Amino acid sequence: MKIKEVADLVGISVRTLHHYDEIGLLIPEETTEAGYRIYSDENLETLQQILFFKELGFPLKKIKDIISSPSFDRYEALLMHRKMLLEKRRRLDRMIETVEKTMKYMKGDIYMSNKEKFEGFDFSQNPYEQEARERWGDEAVDKSEQKIGNMSKSEKKDFEERFNEIYRKLAAIRHTAPDSKEAQEGIKEWYDFLKTIGDYSLDAFKGLGQMYVDDERFTRNIDQFGEGLAEFMRDSMAVFADRTNK
Predict the structure, then answer these.
(1) What contacts 24+ positions apart, CB below 8 Å, involve 87-90?
(2) pLDDT of 183-198, one tens digit each?
(3) Quick one: average pLDDT of 25-48?
(4) Do residues 31 and 42 touch, judged by C-beta distance below 8 A?
(5) Which of 20, 138, 160, 166 can pair with 26 through a Cys bridge, CB separation 3.0 to 4.6 Å?
(6) What positions does the domain HTH merR-type occupy (predicted)?
(7) What band does 139 get if pLDDT is binned at 50, 70 and 90?
(8) CA separation, residue 180 to residues 116, 174, 177, 212, 223 (Å)
(9) Average pLDDT of the chain to the nearest whole number
């Protein structure tokens, strides 16, 4: 199958498949002399595995490590996927039940204890922190946490205001070309800001931008400032990293 056919079949973008190829996560069976990527049935089976892992919150680097390991067993992985998805469904079912009970409670039909109001919620692990640790290692994250933790209340407030200000400025120019002077000046401001709290290399900066699109949790939060902002930042960050690396 050609790349457009695969994208339409699966429901993902051609750009995403290009990225998977570039990072060695999913390399097409063949690339024609004209540059067309051709995917085999085996490629599609690998893509299914990638998307299963992605649905469960695994970062792309971790997925690549798992599926490229000589000890990787696809059937065993499917059993694990099933187990984890069933657990995810169980938690979602509990949350749906809590929503329905809360609606009845608001109408005065039933009584709800405070404990019942929060059944199904699980904040035992911060997914953003865990993903960052797996992608870039503990040291950079620990340094960032330490810097933020050592800030006074007023410094933290200034930090948050600056953070939001940059996002609002980028949202305002998100319809411009990622390689435009305006976009690159805006994204440099974002890079410089991140460097104040952590030791982010240009490669890490580019990878972070890709995560903004690959991980729906990031996309959802970023696009609150303006629809399409996550993709604009991803593309602008890639241009900035590539240009600065030269």
Answers:
(1) 88/56
(2) 999 999 999 988 887 7
(3) 92
(4) no
(5) 20
(6) 1-69
(7) low
(8) 52, 11, 5, 20, 21
(9) 83
Are residue 190 and residue 85 in the same domain, yes or no?
no
> What dihedral do alpha carbons 122, 127, 130, 133 form, nearest 10°?
-160
What is the CA angle 47-14-71, rounded to 5? 20
Regarding whether 89 and 57 lie in a shared domain, the answer is no
| d(C-alpha 81, C-alpha 49), whole Å | 9
- Residue at a domain's end among 83, 99, 124: 124
Here the tokens at position 92 are 């979602």
Any idea which of 16-30, 59-73, 154-168, 175-189 has the lowest mean pLDDT? Answer: 59-73
Domain count for the chain, please give it. 3
Separation CA 135–CA 157 (nearest Å): 28
Band (126; pLDDT cuts 50, 70, 90): very low
Surface-to-core class of residue 20, CB atoms within 10 Å of its CB (0-12 exposed, 13-18 middle, 19+ buried):
buried
- Tell whether 93 and 142 lie within a shared domain: no
- What φ, ψ does residue 199 adopt, rounded to 5°? -95, 80
> Nearest Cα to 15, choosing from 227, 226, 209, 197?
209
Specify the length of the chain in residues. Answer: 246
